[in-house]
Amino acid sequence: MSKVEDFLTPEQEQEIVEAIRTAEKNTSGEIRVHIEKTTSLDPYDRAMEVFHDLRMDETQLQNGVLIYVAVEDKTFVICGDKGINDLVEPDFWDCTRDAMVSQFKKGDFKQGLVDGILRAGERLKKYFPWQEGDTDELSNEISKG
């Protein structure tokens, strides 16, 4: 599987978008997923580029989360904005990563992403609970490179 288009079916993509909507009902945090074929950069560095390209660093509370996937490289990165990183423990994303890896190892990429998104939303709720008047600052659609 080397093409981004083959990574998820349109139906699976919609399930992921729905998971983002569900997760964001618990938190004011903003979650995005970006999928691309490969990167010549260090995956974390590329994820941070995408983070900025998607303007995720412009949320009011600096609480955006990006799940970046490089399909051909078989790698992914979870990165949070400054507002999150300033508050949480260093291993904050480990359980989210582990939930995703367990599904990815089975070849179930959609479920890995759904599990990661829902876990991220649940974890963020403690630090950034949803409040009356919260607006969805970023698109929930999957971006592709």
Account of the 3D structure:
The chain is of the alpha/beta class and about 140 residues long. It is about 45% helix and about 15% strand. It contains 6 helices and 4 strands. It has a 4-stranded mixed β-sheet with strand order 3-2-1-4, sandwiched between helices. Strand 2 and strand 3 form a beta hairpin. The chain is globular, with a radius of gyration of 14 Å. The two termini are about 15 Å apart.
What is this entry, summarized?
The chain has 6 helices and 4 strands; from the N terminus they run ααβαββαααβ. It has 145 residues and is an alpha/beta fold.
Secondary structure layout:
Blueprint: H1 4-7, H2 10-24, E1 30-36, H3 43-53, E2 64-70, E3 75-80, H4 82-85, H5 94-105, H6 109-127, E4 143-144
Parallel strand pairs: 1-2, 1-4
Antiparallel strand pairs: 2-3
